Amino acid sequence: MTAPDIIFHNADITTLNRGQPTATAVAIKDGRFTAVGTDQDILPLAGDATRIVNLQGRSVLPGLFDNHTHVIRGGLNYNMELRWDGVRSLADAMAMLKAQVDMTPAPQWVRVVGGFTEHQFIEKRLPTLEEINAIAPDTPVFILHLYDRALLNAAALRVVGYTKDTPEPPGGEIKRDSNGNPIGLLLAKPNASILYATLAKGPKLPFDYQVNSTRHFMRELNRLGVTGIIDAGGGSQNYPDDYEVIQKLADENQLTVRIAYNLFTQKPKEEKEDFLNWTSSVKYKQGDDYFRHNGAGEMLVYSAADFEDFRQPRPEMPPQMEGELEEVVRILAENKWPWRLHATYDETISRSLDVFEKVNRDIPLEGINWFFDHAETISQKSIDRIAALGGGVAVQHRMAYQGEYFAERYGTAAAANTPPVKRILESGVKVSAGTDATRVASYNPWVSLAWLISGKTVGGMKLYPQANLLDRETALRMWTENVTWFSNEEGSRGRIEVGHLADMIVPNKDFFSVPEDEIPFMTSDLTVVGGRIVYGAGIFADFDTPLPPAMPDWSPVNKYRGYAAWGDPKGAGKNSLAPMRQQAIASCGCASACGLHGHDHARAWASNAPVSDLQGFFGALGCSCWAV
Protein backbone atom coordinates (compact mmCIF):
# COMPACT_ATOMS: atom_id res chain seq x y z
CA MET A 1 0.00 0.00 0.00
CA THR A 2 1.32 3.43 -0.96
CA ALA A 3 2.01 5.67 2.01
CA PRO A 4 -0.62 8.35 2.64
CA ASP A 5 -0.03 12.02 1.92
CA ILE A 6 -1.36 13.06 5.31
CA ILE A 7 -2.63 11.46 8.52
CA PHE A 8 -4.90 13.12 11.09
CA HIS A 9 -4.98 11.36 14.45
CA ASN A 10 -5.86 11.71 18.15
CA ALA A 11 -9.39 12.80 17.28
CA ASP A 12 -13.00 12.01 18.16
CA ILE A 13 -14.34 11.38 14.66
CA THR A 14 -18.02 11.07 13.76
CA THR A 15 -17.85 9.31 10.41
CA LEU A 16 -21.60 8.97 9.57
CA ASN A 17 -20.62 5.53 8.24
CA ARG A 18 -23.12 3.24 9.96
CA GLY A 19 -20.70 0.33 9.67
CA GLN A 20 -17.98 2.26 11.49
CA PRO A 21 -19.60 5.24 13.25
CA THR A 22 -16.51 6.47 15.11
CA ALA A 23 -12.75 6.58 14.66
CA THR A 24 -9.72 8.38 16.02
CA ALA A 25 -7.56 8.67 12.89
CA VAL A 26 -7.72 8.87 9.10
CA ALA A 27 -5.20 8.49 6.30
CA ILE A 28 -5.57 10.42 3.03
CA LYS A 29 -3.98 9.87 -0.35
CA ASP A 30 -4.69 11.80 -3.56
CA GLY A 31 -7.60 13.64 -1.97
CA ARG A 32 -9.53 10.63 -0.66
CA PHE A 33 -9.70 8.71 2.59
CA THR A 34 -7.63 5.56 2.25
CA ALA A 35 -7.93 4.32 5.84
CA VAL A 36 -10.21 5.12 8.79
CA GLY A 37 -9.67 3.61 12.21
CA THR A 38 -7.73 3.91 15.46
CA ASP A 39 -4.40 5.63 15.95
CA GLN A 40 -2.88 2.16 16.35
CA ASP A 41 -4.27 1.17 12.94
CA ILE A 42 -3.42 4.34 11.03
CA LEU A 43 -0.12 5.78 12.32
CA PRO A 44 1.98 2.76 11.17
CA LEU A 45 0.86 3.53 7.59
CA ALA A 46 2.95 6.71 7.51
CA GLY A 47 5.91 6.96 5.14
CA ASP A 48 8.87 9.30 5.21
CA ALA A 49 6.94 12.00 3.32
CA THR A 50 3.63 11.60 5.18
CA ARG A 51 2.47 14.70 7.05
CA ILE A 52 1.09 13.85 10.50
CA VAL A 53 -1.37 16.17 12.23
CA ASN A 54 -2.36 15.69 15.88
CA LEU A 55 -5.95 16.88 16.40
CA GLN A 56 -5.49 16.91 20.19
CA GLY A 57 -8.61 14.97 21.04
CA ARG A 58 -10.99 17.31 19.24
CA SER A 59 -14.26 16.26 17.62
CA VAL A 60 -14.31 15.86 13.84
CA LEU A 61 -17.26 15.88 11.41
CA PRO A 62 -17.60 15.38 7.65
CA GLY A 63 -17.40 18.67 5.77
CA LEU A 64 -20.70 20.54 5.43
CA PHE A 65 -22.30 20.58 1.97
CA ASP A 66 -24.90 23.26 1.09
CA ASN A 67 -27.60 21.95 -1.25
CA HIS A 68 -28.60 25.38 -2.56
CA THR A 69 -26.66 28.61 -2.52
CA HIS A 70 -25.46 31.29 -4.91
CA VAL A 71 -21.74 31.32 -4.30
CA ILE A 72 -20.69 32.06 -7.89
CA ARG A 73 -22.80 35.23 -8.04
CA GLY A 74 -22.12 36.03 -4.39
CA GLY A 75 -18.38 35.74 -4.86
CA LEU A 76 -18.35 38.37 -7.60
CA ASN A 77 -19.82 40.90 -5.16
CA TYR A 78 -18.76 39.74 -1.69
CA ASN A 79 -15.99 42.31 -1.22
CA MET A 80 -18.40 45.16 -2.00
CA GLU A 81 -21.10 44.08 0.44
CA LEU A 82 -21.57 45.15 4.04
CA ARG A 83 -22.98 41.96 5.58
CA TRP A 84 -25.51 42.27 8.38
CA ASP A 85 -25.79 38.49 8.66
CA GLY A 86 -25.87 37.61 12.37
CA VAL A 87 -25.68 41.21 13.64
CA ARG A 88 -27.93 41.37 16.71
CA SER A 89 -28.92 45.02 16.95
CA LEU A 90 -29.95 47.70 14.51
CA ALA A 91 -27.76 50.15 16.41
CA ASP A 92 -24.70 48.03 15.62
CA ALA A 93 -25.82 47.60 12.01
CA MET A 94 -26.21 51.34 11.57
CA ALA A 95 -22.82 51.98 13.17
CA MET A 96 -21.35 49.59 10.62
CA LEU A 97 -23.20 51.42 7.85
CA LYS A 98 -21.90 54.83 8.94
CA ALA A 99 -18.32 53.58 9.23
CA GLN A 100 -18.54 52.08 5.76
CA VAL A 101 -20.06 55.24 4.28
CA ASP A 102 -17.14 57.20 5.71
CA MET A 103 -14.55 54.97 4.02
CA THR A 104 -16.26 54.34 0.67
CA PRO A 105 -15.03 56.60 -2.17
CA ALA A 106 -17.21 58.05 -4.90
CA PRO A 107 -18.77 56.76 -7.13
CA GLN A 108 -19.00 53.48 -5.17
CA TRP A 109 -22.12 52.40 -3.29
CA VAL A 110 -22.53 50.98 0.16
CA ARG A 111 -24.64 47.83 -0.20
CA VAL A 112 -26.26 45.57 2.32
CA VAL A 113 -27.48 42.73 0.13
CA GLY A 114 -29.67 40.34 2.09
CA GLY A 115 -28.74 37.59 4.51
CA PHE A 116 -30.53 39.25 7.43
CA THR A 117 -34.00 39.98 8.75
CA GLU A 118 -35.31 42.75 10.96
CA HIS A 119 -36.40 40.06 13.46
CA GLN A 120 -32.77 39.28 14.36
CA PHE A 121 -32.37 42.81 15.75
CA ILE A 122 -33.36 43.44 19.34
CA GLU A 123 -35.17 46.53 18.04
CA LYS A 124 -37.27 44.29 15.73
CA ARG A 125 -37.31 46.85 12.94
CA LEU A 126 -35.50 48.09 9.86
CA PRO A 127 -33.85 51.49 9.67
CA THR A 128 -35.96 54.37 8.43
CA LEU A 129 -35.12 56.24 5.27
CA GLU A 130 -34.55 59.33 7.40
CA GLU A 131 -31.94 57.46 9.47
CA ILE A 132 -30.15 56.23 6.35
CA ASN A 133 -30.15 59.68 4.71
CA ALA A 134 -28.78 61.28 7.88
CA ILE A 135 -25.84 58.85 7.85
CA ALA A 136 -25.24 59.03 4.11
CA PRO A 137 -26.28 62.32 2.47
CA ASP A 138 -23.94 61.90 -0.50
CA THR A 139 -22.86 58.23 -0.77
CA PRO A 140 -25.40 55.92 -2.48
CA VAL A 141 -26.78 53.31 -0.07
CA PHE A 142 -28.76 50.24 -1.15
CA ILE A 143 -30.18 47.89 1.51
CA LEU A 144 -31.93 44.69 0.39
CA HIS A 145 -34.18 43.04 2.98
CA LEU A 146 -34.86 39.44 1.94
CA TYR A 147 -36.69 39.60 -1.39
CA ASP A 148 -39.49 41.85 -0.15
CA ARG A 149 -38.02 45.36 -0.24
CA ALA A 150 -35.05 47.59 -0.82
CA LEU A 151 -34.20 50.86 0.91
CA LEU A 152 -32.36 53.52 -1.11
CA ASN A 153 -31.14 56.84 0.19
CA ALA A 154 -31.56 60.05 -1.81
CA ALA A 155 -28.08 59.72 -3.29
CA ALA A 156 -28.87 56.22 -4.59
CA LEU A 157 -32.17 57.43 -6.07
CA ARG A 158 -30.31 60.12 -7.98
CA VAL A 159 -27.76 57.63 -9.32
CA VAL A 160 -30.31 55.05 -10.49
CA GLY A 161 -32.45 57.78 -12.02
CA TYR A 162 -35.81 57.01 -10.45
CA THR A 163 -38.07 60.07 -10.72
CA LYS A 164 -41.73 61.04 -10.77
CA ASP A 165 -41.83 59.88 -14.39
CA THR A 166 -40.42 56.38 -13.75
CA PRO A 167 -43.23 53.86 -14.46
CA GLU A 168 -44.31 51.26 -11.93
CA PRO A 169 -42.53 47.94 -12.49
CA PRO A 170 -44.61 44.79 -13.21
CA GLY A 171 -45.27 43.00 -9.92
CA GLY A 172 -43.49 45.66 -7.90
CA GLU A 173 -43.94 49.16 -6.52
CA ILE A 174 -41.85 52.31 -6.20
CA LYS A 175 -43.23 54.05 -3.12
CA ARG A 176 -43.82 57.78 -3.67
CA ASP A 177 -44.63 60.92 -1.72
CA SER A 178 -47.77 63.00 -2.21
CA ASN A 179 -46.18 64.68 -5.24
CA GLY A 180 -45.36 61.35 -6.92
CA ASN A 181 -41.63 61.48 -6.25
CA PRO A 182 -39.91 58.21 -5.19
CA ILE A 183 -39.04 58.18 -1.49
CA GLY A 184 -36.47 55.36 -1.64
CA LEU A 185 -38.59 52.30 -0.80
CA LEU A 186 -38.94 49.58 -3.45
CA LEU A 187 -41.41 46.76 -2.84
CA ALA A 188 -41.74 43.32 -4.42
CA LYS A 189 -45.44 42.63 -4.90
CA PRO A 190 -44.35 39.84 -5.05
CA ASN A 191 -42.04 39.97 -8.09
CA ALA A 192 -38.55 40.93 -6.96
CA SER A 193 -37.35 42.03 -10.41
CA ILE A 194 -37.34 45.71 -9.44
CA LEU A 195 -34.97 44.84 -6.58
CA TYR A 196 -32.60 42.86 -8.84
CA ALA A 197 -32.69 45.48 -11.59
CA THR A 198 -31.91 48.35 -9.24
CA LEU A 199 -29.00 46.53 -7.61
CA ALA A 200 -27.60 45.74 -11.06
CA LYS A 201 -27.23 49.49 -11.75
CA GLY A 202 -24.40 49.73 -9.21
CA PRO A 203 -20.68 49.65 -10.04
CA LYS A 204 -19.04 46.26 -10.51
CA LEU A 205 -15.61 45.12 -9.40
CA PRO A 206 -12.85 44.66 -12.02
CA PHE A 207 -12.05 41.06 -12.93
CA ASP A 208 -8.98 40.72 -10.69
CA TYR A 209 -10.94 42.14 -7.78
CA GLN A 210 -13.74 39.64 -8.43
CA VAL A 211 -11.19 36.83 -8.23
CA ASN A 212 -9.99 38.16 -4.88
CA SER A 213 -13.61 38.63 -3.74
CA THR A 214 -14.57 35.06 -4.58
CA ARG A 215 -11.56 33.72 -2.70
CA HIS A 216 -12.52 35.72 0.38
CA PHE A 217 -16.08 34.46 0.21
CA MET A 218 -14.89 30.85 -0.01
CA ARG A 219 -12.59 31.46 2.96
CA GLU A 220 -15.52 32.71 5.01
CA LEU A 221 -17.43 29.54 4.09
CA ASN A 222 -14.41 27.43 5.09
CA ARG A 223 -14.33 29.26 8.44
CA LEU A 224 -17.89 28.07 8.97
CA GLY A 225 -17.09 24.47 8.00
CA VAL A 226 -18.46 24.49 4.44
CA THR A 227 -16.45 22.28 2.09
CA GLY A 228 -18.95 21.94 -0.77
CA ILE A 229 -21.96 23.64 -2.33
CA ILE A 230 -24.43 23.23 -5.14
CA ASP A 231 -24.76 26.57 -6.90
CA ALA A 232 -28.33 27.21 -8.02
CA GLY A 233 -27.49 29.85 -10.62
CA GLY A 234 -29.27 33.15 -10.19
CA GLY A 235 -30.74 36.24 -11.78
CA SER A 236 -28.23 38.32 -13.74
CA GLN A 237 -25.80 35.38 -13.76
CA ASN A 238 -25.26 34.48 -17.39
CA TYR A 239 -23.43 31.37 -18.54
CA PRO A 240 -20.60 31.27 -19.48
CA ASP A 241 -19.75 35.00 -19.11
CA ASP A 242 -20.31 35.29 -15.35
CA TYR A 243 -18.51 32.00 -14.71
CA GLU A 244 -15.10 33.20 -15.91
CA VAL A 245 -13.88 34.04 -12.41
CA ILE A 246 -14.82 30.70 -10.88
CA GLN A 247 -13.44 28.89 -13.95
CA LYS A 248 -10.12 30.70 -13.54
CA LEU A 249 -9.92 29.68 -9.89
CA ALA A 250 -10.78 26.10 -10.81
CA ASP A 251 -8.14 26.03 -13.54
CA GLU A 252 -5.52 27.35 -11.11
CA ASN A 253 -6.46 24.90 -8.33
CA GLN A 254 -7.51 27.75 -6.02
CA LEU A 255 -10.99 26.53 -5.15
CA THR A 256 -11.34 25.76 -1.45
CA VAL A 257 -15.03 24.83 -1.74
CA ARG A 258 -16.24 22.14 -4.14
CA ILE A 259 -18.86 23.54 -6.53
CA ALA A 260 -21.49 21.72 -8.57
CA TYR A 261 -23.36 24.29 -10.65
CA ASN A 262 -26.82 24.39 -12.21
CA LEU A 263 -27.65 26.55 -15.22
CA PHE A 264 -30.42 29.11 -14.62
CA THR A 265 -32.30 30.57 -17.58
CA GLN A 266 -32.03 34.36 -17.89
CA LYS A 267 -34.54 35.32 -20.58
CA PRO A 268 -38.32 35.21 -20.14
CA LYS A 269 -40.00 33.64 -23.18
CA GLU A 270 -36.60 32.41 -24.41
CA GLU A 271 -36.08 29.63 -21.88
CA LYS A 272 -36.46 26.86 -24.44
CA GLU A 273 -33.72 28.39 -26.58
CA ASP A 274 -31.41 28.68 -23.56
CA PHE A 275 -31.72 25.00 -22.74
CA LEU A 276 -31.50 23.85 -26.35
CA ASN A 277 -28.23 25.79 -26.59
CA TRP A 278 -26.84 24.56 -23.28
CA THR A 279 -27.73 20.89 -23.76
CA SER A 280 -25.91 20.97 -27.10
CA SER A 281 -22.84 22.85 -25.84
CA VAL A 282 -22.45 21.70 -22.22
CA LYS A 283 -21.89 18.08 -21.27
CA TYR A 284 -23.69 16.96 -18.13
CA LYS A 285 -21.15 16.43 -15.31
CA GLN A 286 -18.37 18.14 -17.27
CA GLY A 287 -15.57 19.21 -14.94
CA ASP A 288 -13.97 17.51 -11.94
CA ASP A 289 -14.51 16.93 -8.23
CA TYR A 290 -13.96 20.62 -7.52
CA PHE A 291 -15.99 22.29 -10.27
CA ARG A 292 -18.62 20.39 -12.17
CA HIS A 293 -21.85 20.88 -14.10
CA ASN A 294 -24.92 19.56 -12.24
CA GLY A 295 -27.92 20.13 -14.53
CA ALA A 296 -30.60 22.80 -14.99
CA GLY A 297 -32.43 25.30 -12.77
CA GLU A 298 -33.42 26.54 -10.29
CA MET A 299 -35.25 28.71 -12.83
CA LEU A 300 -36.56 26.60 -15.71
CA VAL A 301 -39.29 28.96 -16.98
CA TYR A 302 -40.28 32.34 -15.60
CA SER A 303 -43.98 31.46 -15.70
CA ALA A 304 -43.34 28.85 -12.95
CA ALA A 305 -41.56 31.22 -10.53
CA ASP A 306 -43.69 31.67 -7.40
CA PHE A 307 -41.86 34.37 -5.48
CA GLU A 308 -41.55 33.72 -1.76
CA ASP A 309 -42.52 37.09 -0.30
CA PHE A 310 -44.77 36.01 2.56
CA ARG A 311 -45.75 39.62 3.17
CA GLN A 312 -47.75 39.37 -0.04
CA PRO A 313 -50.55 36.96 -1.02
CA ARG A 314 -49.56 33.76 -2.79
CA PRO A 315 -49.07 34.47 -6.51
CA GLU A 316 -51.13 32.44 -8.97
CA MET A 317 -49.04 31.02 -11.79
CA PRO A 318 -50.27 32.00 -15.28
CA PRO A 319 -52.22 29.55 -17.49
CA GLN A 320 -49.32 29.14 -19.93
CA MET A 321 -47.08 27.73 -17.18
CA GLU A 322 -47.66 24.06 -17.97
CA GLY A 323 -47.01 24.41 -21.69
CA GLU A 324 -43.81 26.39 -21.27
CA LEU A 325 -42.54 24.13 -18.50
CA GLU A 326 -43.25 20.99 -20.53
CA GLU A 327 -41.17 22.25 -23.45
CA VAL A 328 -38.12 22.71 -21.23
CA VAL A 329 -38.57 19.52 -19.18
CA ARG A 330 -38.81 17.44 -22.36
CA ILE A 331 -35.49 18.86 -23.55
CA LEU A 332 -33.88 18.06 -20.22
CA ALA A 333 -35.35 14.56 -20.00
CA GLU A 334 -34.29 13.72 -23.55
CA ASN A 335 -30.72 14.77 -22.69
CA LYS A 336 -30.76 13.03 -19.27
CA TRP A 337 -30.06 16.33 -17.53
CA PRO A 338 -31.22 16.54 -13.91
CA TRP A 339 -33.11 19.68 -12.97
CA ARG A 340 -34.11 21.63 -9.90
CA LEU A 341 -37.20 23.85 -9.77
CA HIS A 342 -37.83 26.75 -7.39
CA ALA A 343 -41.28 26.14 -5.87
CA THR A 344 -42.47 27.80 -2.68
CA TYR A 345 -46.12 26.75 -2.64
CA ASP A 346 -47.86 23.40 -3.02
CA GLU A 347 -50.10 24.85 -5.71
CA THR A 348 -47.03 25.38 -7.91
CA ILE A 349 -45.59 21.98 -7.02
CA SER A 350 -48.84 20.20 -7.88
CA ARG A 351 -49.11 21.86 -11.30
CA SER A 352 -45.44 21.14 -12.01
CA LEU A 353 -45.95 17.49 -11.09
CA ASP A 354 -48.73 17.30 -13.68
CA VAL A 355 -46.10 18.26 -16.25
CA PHE A 356 -43.44 15.88 -14.92
CA GLU A 357 -45.89 12.94 -14.89
CA LYS A 358 -46.93 13.73 -18.45
CA VAL A 359 -43.33 13.81 -19.68
CA ASN A 360 -42.57 10.63 -17.72
CA ARG A 361 -45.19 8.72 -19.73
CA ASP A 362 -43.18 9.42 -22.88
CA ILE A 363 -39.63 9.72 -21.53
CA PRO A 364 -39.09 7.78 -18.29
CA LEU A 365 -37.51 9.98 -15.64
CA GLU A 366 -35.96 7.04 -13.79
CA GLY A 367 -32.30 7.73 -13.03
CA ILE A 368 -32.63 11.49 -13.48
CA ASN A 369 -32.14 13.13 -10.09
CA TRP A 370 -34.64 15.99 -10.42
CA PHE A 371 -36.03 17.84 -7.43
CA PHE A 372 -37.98 20.78 -6.07
CA ASP A 373 -36.29 23.57 -4.12
CA HIS A 374 -37.82 25.14 -0.97
CA ALA A 375 -41.31 23.55 -0.89
CA GLU A 376 -42.44 25.37 2.25
CA THR A 377 -46.14 24.42 1.90
CA ILE A 378 -45.81 21.05 0.17
CA SER A 379 -48.69 18.63 0.85
CA GLN A 380 -48.51 14.93 1.65
CA LYS A 381 -50.18 14.20 -1.70
CA SER A 382 -47.39 16.01 -3.53
CA ILE A 383 -44.75 14.27 -1.43
CA ASP A 384 -46.24 10.92 -2.45
CA ARG A 385 -46.30 11.93 -6.12
CA ILE A 386 -42.63 12.96 -5.93
CA ALA A 387 -41.80 9.61 -4.32
CA ALA A 388 -43.60 7.74 -7.10
CA LEU A 389 -41.59 9.62 -9.74
CA GLY A 390 -38.25 9.16 -7.95
CA GLY A 391 -37.67 12.88 -7.31
CA GLY A 392 -36.41 14.83 -4.32
CA VAL A 393 -36.94 17.93 -2.19
CA ALA A 394 -34.14 20.32 -1.28
CA VAL A 395 -35.11 22.40 1.75
CA GLN A 396 -33.44 25.59 2.92
CA HIS A 397 -33.72 27.67 6.09
CA ARG A 398 -35.67 30.52 4.53
CA MET A 399 -38.33 30.17 7.23
CA ALA A 400 -35.71 30.95 9.87
CA TYR A 401 -35.72 34.43 8.33
CA GLN A 402 -39.36 34.73 7.23
CA GLY A 403 -41.28 32.57 9.70
CA GLU A 404 -42.76 35.57 11.49
CA TYR A 405 -44.18 36.92 8.23
CA PHE A 406 -45.61 33.54 7.26
CA ALA A 407 -47.28 33.08 10.66
CA GLU A 408 -48.71 36.58 10.52
CA ARG A 409 -50.38 35.88 7.17
CA TYR A 410 -51.34 32.21 7.47
CA GLY A 411 -51.31 31.51 11.22
CA THR A 412 -49.01 29.57 13.52
CA ALA A 413 -50.75 26.25 12.81
CA ALA A 414 -49.97 26.54 9.10
CA ALA A 415 -46.40 27.54 9.91
CA ALA A 416 -45.80 24.37 11.94
CA ASN A 417 -44.88 22.33 8.86
CA THR A 418 -43.17 24.79 6.56
CA PRO A 419 -41.70 22.62 5.19
CA PRO A 420 -42.68 19.27 6.77
CA VAL A 421 -39.08 18.04 6.84
CA LYS A 422 -39.66 15.03 9.07
CA ARG A 423 -42.63 13.79 7.02
CA ILE A 424 -40.64 14.12 3.81
CA LEU A 425 -37.87 12.02 5.34
CA GLU A 426 -40.33 9.41 6.59
CA SER A 427 -41.97 9.22 3.16
CA GLY A 428 -38.75 7.98 1.61
CA VAL A 429 -38.28 11.00 -0.63
CA LYS A 430 -34.70 12.16 -1.07
CA VAL A 431 -34.27 15.30 1.03
CA SER A 432 -31.34 17.47 2.10
CA ALA A 433 -30.66 20.93 3.50
CA GLY A 434 -29.02 24.20 2.57
CA THR A 435 -29.28 27.97 2.90
CA ASP A 436 -30.40 29.72 -0.32
CA ALA A 437 -27.77 32.35 0.50
CA THR A 438 -26.74 35.08 -0.01
CA ARG A 439 -29.80 37.30 -0.37
CA VAL A 440 -32.88 35.57 1.05
CA ALA A 441 -30.96 34.02 3.96
CA SER A 442 -27.46 33.87 5.41
CA TYR A 443 -24.76 31.51 4.17
CA ASN A 444 -24.10 30.27 7.72
CA PRO A 445 -24.73 26.48 7.79
CA TRP A 446 -25.00 26.34 11.58
CA VAL A 447 -28.07 28.60 11.48
CA SER A 448 -29.69 26.07 9.17
CA LEU A 449 -28.70 23.16 11.42
CA ALA A 450 -30.06 24.99 14.47
CA TRP A 451 -33.33 25.67 12.61
CA LEU A 452 -33.73 21.96 11.78
CA ILE A 453 -33.02 20.96 15.40
CA SER A 454 -34.77 23.70 17.39
CA GLY A 455 -37.51 24.85 15.01
CA LYS A 456 -36.76 28.47 15.87
CA THR A 457 -36.37 31.51 13.67
CA VAL A 458 -33.32 33.75 14.02
CA GLY A 459 -35.64 36.12 15.87
CA GLY A 460 -36.34 33.42 18.47
CA MET A 461 -39.89 32.50 17.42
CA LYS A 462 -40.70 28.80 17.92
CA LEU A 463 -42.10 27.70 14.57
CA TYR A 464 -42.27 23.92 14.73
CA PRO A 465 -43.59 21.35 17.17
CA GLN A 466 -41.44 18.41 18.23
CA ALA A 467 -43.02 16.27 15.50
CA ASN A 468 -41.28 18.37 12.83
CA LEU A 469 -37.86 18.58 14.48
CA LEU A 470 -34.76 16.51 13.74
CA ASP A 471 -32.23 15.01 16.10
CA ARG A 472 -28.67 16.24 15.68
CA GLU A 473 -27.35 13.26 13.75
CA THR A 474 -30.23 13.37 11.26
CA ALA A 475 -29.77 17.11 10.81
CA LEU A 476 -26.04 16.58 10.20
CA ARG A 477 -26.81 13.93 7.58
CA MET A 478 -29.11 16.46 5.90
CA TRP A 479 -26.02 18.65 5.47
CA THR A 480 -23.59 15.92 4.40
CA GLU A 481 -24.40 12.51 2.92
CA ASN A 482 -28.00 13.39 1.97
CA VAL A 483 -26.84 16.19 -0.31
CA THR A 484 -24.84 13.81 -2.47
CA TRP A 485 -27.97 12.49 -4.24
CA PHE A 486 -28.68 16.07 -5.32
CA SER A 487 -25.19 16.42 -6.80
CA ASN A 488 -25.20 12.88 -8.21
CA GLU A 489 -22.25 11.82 -6.05
CA GLU A 490 -23.72 9.16 -3.78
CA GLY A 491 -21.05 6.82 -2.43
CA SER A 492 -18.29 9.29 -3.26
CA ARG A 493 -18.55 11.92 -0.54
CA GLY A 494 -20.51 13.00 2.53
CA ARG A 495 -19.02 10.56 5.08
CA ILE A 496 -15.59 9.92 6.54
CA GLU A 497 -15.18 6.58 4.86
CA VAL A 498 -12.58 4.81 2.74
CA GLY A 499 -12.94 5.92 -0.87
CA HIS A 500 -14.83 9.14 -0.09
CA LEU A 501 -13.47 12.57 -0.89
CA ALA A 502 -11.41 13.67 2.11
CA ASP A 503 -13.46 16.63 3.31
CA MET A 504 -13.77 17.14 7.07
CA ILE A 505 -13.91 19.80 9.76
CA VAL A 506 -12.89 20.26 13.39
CA PRO A 507 -15.70 22.42 14.84
CA ASN A 508 -14.82 24.84 17.60
CA LYS A 509 -17.32 23.05 19.90
CA ASP A 510 -18.71 19.53 20.05
CA PHE A 511 -21.82 19.64 17.86
CA PHE A 512 -23.48 16.78 19.73
CA SER A 513 -23.13 18.27 23.22
CA VAL A 514 -23.09 22.03 22.78
CA PRO A 515 -26.23 23.77 24.14
CA GLU A 516 -28.87 24.13 21.43
CA ASP A 517 -28.79 27.92 21.45
CA GLU A 518 -25.03 27.89 20.77
CA ILE A 519 -25.27 25.89 17.52
CA PRO A 520 -25.78 28.99 15.32
CA PHE A 521 -22.54 30.46 16.69
CA MET A 522 -20.32 27.50 15.85
CA THR A 523 -17.40 27.77 13.47
CA SER A 524 -14.61 25.49 12.28
CA ASP A 525 -11.13 25.56 13.80
CA LEU A 526 -9.76 23.35 11.01
CA THR A 527 -11.28 22.79 7.57
CA VAL A 528 -9.90 20.14 5.22
CA VAL A 529 -10.90 19.76 1.56
CA GLY A 530 -9.43 16.85 -0.37
CA GLY A 531 -6.89 16.29 2.38
CA ARG A 532 -5.67 19.89 2.06
CA ILE A 533 -5.97 22.23 5.04
CA VAL A 534 -7.79 25.29 3.72
CA TYR A 535 -8.53 27.04 7.02
CA GLY A 536 -7.06 26.97 10.52
CA ALA A 537 -7.86 28.90 13.69
CA GLY A 538 -7.42 28.63 17.44
CA ILE A 539 -4.95 25.90 18.34
CA PHE A 540 -4.67 25.08 14.62
CA ALA A 541 -3.87 28.62 13.48
CA ASP A 542 -0.33 27.63 12.51
CA PHE A 543 -1.78 25.42 9.76
CA ASP A 544 -3.57 28.37 8.15
CA THR A 545 -2.50 30.23 5.01
CA PRO A 546 -4.21 33.64 5.06
CA LEU A 547 -5.34 35.37 1.90
CA PRO A 548 -4.09 38.76 0.70
CA PRO A 549 -6.29 41.64 1.92
CA ALA A 550 -9.69 42.10 0.32
CA MET A 551 -9.73 44.29 -2.78
CA PRO A 552 -10.44 47.18 -2.96
CA ASP A 553 -8.84 48.44 0.24
CA TRP A 554 -12.13 50.05 1.37
CA SER A 555 -13.89 46.68 1.27
CA PRO A 556 -16.05 45.97 4.35
CA VAL A 557 -14.45 42.51 4.43
CA ASN A 558 -11.16 43.96 5.65
CA LYS A 559 -12.80 45.23 8.83
CA TYR A 560 -15.85 43.04 9.53
CA ARG A 561 -14.70 39.78 7.84
CA GLY A 562 -18.08 38.05 7.69
CA TYR A 563 -20.90 36.56 9.71
CA ALA A 564 -21.78 38.51 12.89
CA ALA A 565 -18.99 41.02 12.15
CA TRP A 566 -16.50 38.57 13.65
CA GLY A 567 -13.58 40.69 12.51
CA ASP A 568 -14.74 43.55 14.75
CA PRO A 569 -15.10 41.82 18.13
CA LYS A 570 -14.91 45.06 20.12
CA GLY A 571 -17.40 46.85 17.89
CA ALA A 572 -20.34 45.41 15.97
CA GLY A 573 -19.25 41.87 16.79
CA LYS A 574 -19.31 42.53 20.53
CA ASN A 575 -23.06 41.97 20.73
CA SER A 576 -23.25 39.37 17.97
CA LEU A 577 -20.65 36.69 18.65
CA ALA A 578 -22.29 34.96 21.64
CA PRO A 579 -25.74 33.44 22.17
CA MET A 580 -28.37 35.64 23.76
CA ARG A 581 -28.24 33.47 26.89
CA GLN A 582 -24.54 34.18 27.33
CA GLN A 583 -25.11 37.88 26.75
CA ALA A 584 -27.85 37.85 29.39
CA ILE A 585 -25.54 36.11 31.87
CA ALA A 586 -22.82 38.68 31.24
CA SER A 587 -25.21 41.58 31.75
CA CYS A 588 -27.23 40.07 34.62
CA GLY A 589 -27.99 42.79 37.15
CA CYS A 590 -29.15 40.50 39.95
CA ALA A 591 -27.83 41.24 43.41
CA SER A 592 -26.46 37.73 43.89
CA ALA A 593 -25.70 34.69 41.79
CA CYS A 594 -27.54 31.41 42.19
CA GLY A 595 -25.47 28.83 44.08
CA LEU A 596 -26.19 26.20 41.43
CA HIS A 597 -26.51 28.13 38.17
CA GLY A 598 -24.59 31.35 38.73
CA HIS A 599 -26.31 34.11 36.79
CA ASP A 600 -27.68 31.68 34.18
CA HIS A 601 -31.17 31.78 35.69
CA ALA A 602 -32.87 31.07 32.37
CA ARG A 603 -31.31 27.61 32.24
CA ALA A 604 -32.92 26.72 35.55
CA TRP A 605 -36.25 28.26 34.67
CA ALA A 606 -36.42 26.28 31.43
CA SER A 607 -35.23 22.97 32.90
CA ASN A 608 -37.42 19.98 33.65
CA ALA A 609 -36.65 18.92 37.19
CA PRO A 610 -37.48 15.23 37.87
CA VAL A 611 -39.78 16.05 40.79
CA SER A 612 -43.15 17.64 41.29
CA ASP A 613 -42.04 19.98 44.12
CA LEU A 614 -39.71 22.44 42.33
CA GLN A 615 -39.24 24.58 45.43
CA GLY A 616 -38.22 21.64 47.57
CA PHE A 617 -35.98 20.13 44.90
CA PHE A 618 -34.02 23.28 44.13
CA GLY A 619 -34.06 24.38 47.73
CA ALA A 620 -32.31 21.14 48.68
CA LEU A 621 -29.54 21.91 46.18
CA GLY A 622 -29.26 25.52 47.20
CA CYS A 623 -30.69 26.91 43.95
CA SER A 624 -31.99 30.43 44.39
CA CYS A 625 -33.08 31.11 40.78
CA TRP A 626 -36.75 31.19 41.79
CA ALA A 627 -35.97 33.81 44.41
CA VAL A 628 -34.25 36.21 41.97
From TrEMBL:
Identify the stretch annotated as signal peptide in this record: none
Q: Which GO terms describe its molecular function?
A: hydrolase activity, acting on carbon-nitrogen (but not peptide) bonds
Q: Which UniProt keywords apply?
A: Hydrolase
| Source organism, top-level taxon | Bacteria
| Residue ranges occupied by any Amidohydrolase domain in the UniProt entry | 51-535
A family per Pfam: Amidohydro_3
By its UniProt entry, which Gene3D superfamilies does this protein fall under? Answer: 3.10.310.70, Metal-dependent hydrolases, Urease, subunit C, domain 1
Query: InterPro entries under this entry?
Result: Amidohydro_3, Metal-dep_hydrolase_composite, Metal_Hydrolase, YtcJ-like
Name listed for the protein in its UniProt record: Amidohydrolase
